[in-house]
Structures are given as structure tokens and as C-alpha cells.
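Quick one, T. Sequence first:
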Amino acid sequence: MTRLKLFSKAESLSLIIIFLVLVAISVPNFIVSLRRSRDQVRRDDMGVLEHSLDEYFVDLGAFPPSSPDGRIMDCLNPGDAPYKDNKGRWVVNPIPCEWGKDSFLNLINKKSYLSTIPRDPDSQEGVSYYYMSDGARFQLFTAMEGKDEAEVDPSIIARNLPCGNKVCNAGRFYGCAISKTLQECQLEELLLRK
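C-alpha cells:
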């Protein structure tokens, strides 16, 4: 009985080298593709959040406030409910919403703007979105992984805002240039009124 020999040593070595070259070429491209995919999710999330915030503003005449750690203040503790005070005004005691967990809704009439507030695709790595608002204007930030992405803005990086454990480098805004703090915009508005 004769044994069938598939490849010689030289042929086997050639095949291994070819395979390693293909892997060396493919893996970096695959990694870049995954990064671009996560950045596209961030772009989409920014658009969805901006649209929802605009809708909220149209309905209520103000954007939801922001928490000191950059979350949307539009959620309630379990058991809490909005109520009217003795002058007939609604009283709401909102708490910060959790990215990727809580709904974004009107706390008075329960109109839903988002069934779940998006979270950064790398949230398990400690990355998050960052929201700032004074009611009249908002700024919404993210940390794009690709430094060559069109949305990456050096003026945002210079602000050194925390998108979780990364520095924010891109964002969306209404009523205040993204390169300025909300306080700077408020001051400019006051000076223009004088």
C-alpha cells in the first residue's frame, strides 16, 4: 500500500507563507472596518439624539437639563411622578438618564421621543456620550475613534470634555457654537442685549 503525499516540504512552506501574507494584509483592513462601523453608529446616534431633542424642544419650549456628568436629566426615580403645585404648575424632579438603558420621554404626558437613549458602541470599555444644556441650547458630544473622520473638531478636543474615559472630539449643537461653553454663549447673549 502506498501513501499519498499531498505536498512536499517546500510546497507546504510556500502555502504557509502565502496564508500568513494574506492574514497580515486582511487583519488590519478588518480592524479599520470595525472602527469605521463603530464611528458610523456614533454618527447615527448623534443624528437620532439631535432630532429627538429638537422634537422635545418643539413640544416643551426647552431642552432637557443636563447632569454634571453629561447625561440627559429626564428620568424619574421609581415611584416618583410629576405633580401640580398649589399654583397649578407641574413639578418634576428628574434624575440623570442612563445611556442605553432609559427612555427619553416627556415626563408630564409620557410622549416618547426615544424608546431607549443610545449609548456609545464602546460603552463596555467606559466610553460614553456627553450632553450639556441650559434649556435654551444644547451641545452633544462623542469620541470618534478615527482621527481622520470629518466630524473630528480640534476646538472640541481643546475643550477636554470627558466622553467617559476618552476626550470628546466631535459633536452636534443648537444655539451655541460647539467650540464655546454654554456659559460663554449666555454671556455673549447678555452682552448683545445691552
